[in-house]
Structures are given as structure tokens and as C-alpha cells.
Amino acid sequence: MTGILVAALVLGVPALAFALWPLLGARGRSQVLLRLPPDRRGELAERKAATLRALRELSFEHDAGHIGDADYAELSARYEGEAAAVLTELDRLGPAAPAPSRPPTGVAESRSAWRHPAALATGAILLVLFGIAIGAGVVRYTEPDRPAAAPRVGAAPLAPPVPTPGGGGPPGAGRAVTPEVLQGMLRAARASLFEGRYGEAIAAYQAVLKRDPKNVDALTHLGLIVALGGHADTALETLDRALAIDPNYPPALLYRGQVLYESKQDTAGAIRAWEKFLAVAPPGEDRARVEKLIAEARARR
Predict the structure, then answer these.
(1) Would the pTM count as exceeding 0.90?
(2) Where would I find the H helices in the chain?
(3) CATH number for domain 179-300, candidates 1.25.40.10, 2.60.40.1120, 3.10.20.30, 1.10.10.60
(4) In Å, how far are 7, 94, 136, 146 from 143, measured between CA atoms?
(5) Percent of the chain at pLDDT exceeding 90
(6) 3-state class (DSSP) for residue 156
(7) Which helix (H) or strand (E) holds 99?
(8) pLDDT tens digit string along 88-99?
(9) Which of 70, 103, 223, 248 yields a CA-CA distance of 20 to 30 A from 120?
(10) Selection from 121, 51, 56, 58 nearest residue 81 by Cα
(11) Cα(11)–Cα(133) distance, rounded to whole angstroms?
């Protein structure tokens, strides 16, 4: 016990003095200036960008036929109103204030986090504990071995781990759902997609694919979301996976033509995809719109 205390004093006291010296020498220094609150103009600029992006995506959805004229007019008016409110607030705030001048020479601008009193005190305590541990180790391993402390020969080995009931598969594996539940998940995902909550829609479609990896509806609309995000190649790969499962799925053919036409500038490929759509799609508004798109694409060639 005496050896431990001696080792702790020899190693811990110098370490404590070394850690506390900057803290004691920091008295009389100027305090750190408080930071200015964040400028509201930055928040408003982000809201404006998000609103304009939502308007562009809403126009894309309307052109694709996922949103009717009445819903498009209502959502467009709401987003335009929000954008107008943001612009009005920006005009009311006026230009941003000039950045504050630097403090005069000789005044400390900021302190390193490692020189904070709490950090220094914590470091001192850890150094003292480290010194005590080293002293205890020195005393322990310099003493002669004690025969009573030797392990018993022939001691029984540890018991093997008890297997977990239910097998070792990952949680949730093989969990089946009824078709009604699956359709409900798809409706919720599509509602999130049409309302512009793309993060929720992606999570919902991925949950569907986890239970039904060959769900063509989920694959198709995931491809649409990826296309809206500007990743045309990944969108085409996802749509091709859906068409490999069901080559005659009309929405996948429609979206594939739009991605080829608008993002990849592949007019011939877009026309081929749309012609396959016309071959399988029933008469209706979507069919008439695709016929118009084909005519416009051929006129630009």
C-alpha cells in the first residue's frame, strides 16, 4: 500500500502541476466575446430555394400525369404564396449587416477547447488516475508471485453460449404481410410522393421492397424519385429492373421515356419506350398525352 501511494505521488503530482499550470496562468485574460445570433436571411434563403424546387418538381409531376389540373393549381398557388411571403420578408429585412470588425491587437479572439477550465480539470483528474494506475501496476508486478493466487489445474472451462430462441437470422427476416397491408403501404408511399415528401416516400417504398423485392410499383416509383433528384442513370437502372419483371408495366414505360427524352436527350429511345406504352395502355388521358409527346419528339428530330 505504501508503494502505491509513493508511486502515485511521484507520478501524479508533477502531472497535476503540468495540467493546472495553463489554468493558473490564464487569469486576467479577456473573456471570449459572445457569438452573434444567426442571421434570419439565411433561413429565409433556404426556404425560398426549397419552395422553388418544390414548384419545379410539382410541374414535373403534373407533366407526367400524376397530379390533376385542380390539384396542380391548388398546390402551385400554395407554393407561390409561400415564395411570395418569403420574398416579402427578405425585402423587409433589407440587405445583410456588414461583418463586425476584428478586435484590436492584444485581445484574445477565442480560446482553444483544450484550454477550457473544465477540460483542464478533467485532464488533471485523468492524469492523477493514470499515475495511480501506473504506481499500482509497478508495485503489483514487482512483487514475487504468490502460490495461492495461481489458477487451479484442471478447472472446468467456460460453458458455451446459450443459443437464442428463434434461430440466428436477422430481426424481421421472413416477415410476411397480407396483400391488403402491402397495398396500404403503397398508397401511403404514393401519397408522400405526390405531396413532395420524398424522404418518406423512399422509406415507404424500400419497406415494401424489403417484403416484396419484385414489387414493380415500388421499383417504378423509386426510379421516378431518383430521376427527380437528377440521377438519370440510376433512375434508368431502377426502371429497367421493374421492366425486367413486367415488360408491359405502363408507368415504367412512361417514366423511362421521359427520363430518356428530358435528361439523356435520347429522342429515339424515348419514342420507343412511349410506343411500347401506347401498345399496352388503355385509351384515356395518359394515352392522349403520350401521343402528343411522341409527335413533339418526332418534330424536333
Answers:
(1) no
(2) 2-25, 40-64, 69-93, 117-142, 179-194, 198-211, 216-228, 232-245, 250-262, 267-280, 285-300
(3) 1.25.40.10
(4) 14, 77, 11, 9
(5) 33
(6) coil
(7) none
(8) 877 777 676 665
(9) 103
(10) 51
(11) 10
